[in-house]
Design brief:
The strands form two sheets. Strands 4-5-1-6 form a four-stranded mixed β-sheet, with no helix packed on it. A two-stranded antiparallel sheet has the order 2-3. It is of the alpha+beta class. Helices cover about 50% and strands about 10% of the residues. Strand 2 and strand 3 form a beta hairpin.
C-alpha cells in the first residue's frame, strides 16, 4: 500500500548553497556515520581512503578544534563530496537539513530551520504556507484502527490551525486567537516575567558559543529594561522589533506546528507542542537583533539569523525540546 507524502510548498526548491552559506552544518555537531557508509569508507583506496579511516572513531568523524569536521576544507566544501561524489556522503550528511516523520500511511517531510537556506525559502514564500501531497512507494508504519482514528483527529485539529493562520480576510490578531487562543496579553506565558523566561533559557544546555553570546545579549536587554523601569517584576510586555511581516509570521508559526504538533501521537505534550510555535515566534520577534547578533546586516539576514540560532538551540536536542514542551504544557 502506498504512503501519502506531504511536503511544505518550498521543500522541492531547496538546494544546499555550500560555500555561499554564511554558516556551515559541518561545524558544531557530532557527525554520526551509518553502517553502510562505514563499510564503503573501509574500501576507499589511496591517500584519501587513509584519511577517511584515520578520522573515524566510534561510529563518527573525529572533530577538529571548534568542532569542525575534518573533511571540511577552507572554502567550507566537503572533501568527501569533491573526492568521491554525492553518493559517498554518509546518511546524515545526505539528508541534513531534511527531516521525515511517518504516521501510519502518511509520511511528512520538511527542512530544519537551523539551515539558513531553508529559513530563507520559508520566509520568502508568497502567501500562506501550503502543502503538497502525493503517493510514494515507501513502506508504511503499522498503525491499528484506533491509533489511525486518533491520528486523524490530531491532523484535523492541525489543519484547522493552518486554515486559521492562512485566512487573510481577518486581522492577524484574530487569526492568532483562532489558531492558538492567543490574545497577546501574556506573550511569554507561562513565564511570569521576561527575566523568568531568560533564567529558564539559561538553564538549558547550550549548543555552543553563538547561543551563549545571543543569550547574554537578551539578558542585557531585559535587565536594562527592568532597571529603567520599563519592565517591573510581574510584567511580560516587550516590543516587537518589527522585522517579521504578518505573512512571514504566519508561515513561521504554521511551519513550527507542522513540524512538531503531530508528534504528540508518540510523545504526548499536545499543548506544549502547540505553544512551542508561539514561544519560538515571540522570542524571534522580541529579540531579533539580539539573536542574530549582527546589527550591520540587512533585514532579511537578521531575520534568518534569529530563526536559525533559535532552531539550533531549541529544536535539535530531544532533551531540550522535552524540557521546553513540559514547561509550556499547561
Amino acid at each position: 500500500m502506498s504512503l501519502i507524502l506531504r511536503k511544505p510548498d518550498f521543500y522541492d526548491s531547496f538546494r544546499c548553497i555550500a560555500s555561499r552559506c554564511t554558516d556551515t552544518c559541518c561545524v558544531g555537531w557530532e557527525i554520526d556515520i551509518d553502517d553502510a557508509s562505514q563499510k564503503a569508507y573501509r574500501k576507499v583506496a589511496g591517500a584519501f581512503g587513509d584519511k577517511l579511516r584515520q578520522n573515524i572513531e566510534d561510529g563518527h568523524f573525529k572533530l577538529l578544534p571548534h568542532d569542525r569536521c575534518p573533511f571540511l576544507d577552507k572554502q567550507n566544501l566537503c572533501e568527501i563530496y569533491t573526492h568521491l561524489g554525492a553518493g559517498a556522503l554518509c546518511e546524515i550528511c545526505r539528508e541534513h537539513p531534511r527531516f521525515v516523520e511517518v504516521y501510519g500511511d502518511i509520511m511528512e517531510r520538511g527542512l530544519g530551520l537551523c539551515c539558513e537556506e531553508a529559513s530563507r525559502l520559508l520566509l520568502e514564500g508568497k502567501g500562506p504556507l501550503a502543502f503538497t501531497s502525493e503517493e510514494c512507494d515507501e513502506p508504511e508504519d503499522e498503525m491499528d484502527e484506533d491509533d489511525r482514528e486518533v491520528r486523524d483527529e490530531v491532523m484535523f485539529a492541525r489543519e484547522q490551525i493552518f486554515k486559521a493562520l492562512a485566512d487573510t480576510s481577518i486581522p492577524f490578531k484574530e487569526r492568532l486567537h483562532q489558531a492558538f487562543g492567543y490574545t497577546g496579553d501574556k506573550p511569554l506565558a507561562p513565564f511570569e516575567s521576561a527575566s523568568a523566561m531568560v533564567e529558564f533559557l539559561a538553564q538549558l544546555e547550550s549548543y555552543g558559543a553563538d547561543w551563549d553570546a545571543a543569550l547574554a545579549r537578551i539578558k542585557a536587554k531585559v535587565y536594562a529594561a527592568q532597571e529603567a523601569g520599563r519592565l517591573d517584576k510581574d510584567s511580560t510586555i516587550l516590543e516587537d522589533q518589527g522585522f517579521f511581516s504578518e505573512t512571514e509570521s504566519a508561515r513561521l508559526l504554521a511551519y513550527l506546528v507542522y513540524r512538531h504538533y503531530s508528534k504528540c501521537l508518540f510523545e504526548g505534550r499536545e499543548q506544549g507542542k502547540l505553544m512551542f510555535a508561539l514561544f519560538f515566534w515571540n522570542l524571534a520577534r522580541f529579540f531579533t537583533r539580539e539573536l542574530a547578533g549582527n546589527a550591520a546586516a540587512d533585514a532579511q539576514s537578521i531575520k534568518i539569523g534569529a530563526i536559525k540560532i533559535l532552531s539550533k538551540q531549541l529544536e535539535y536536542a530531544e532533551e531540550i525540546m522535552e524540557i521546553v514542551e513540559i514547561s509550556l504544557d499547561g
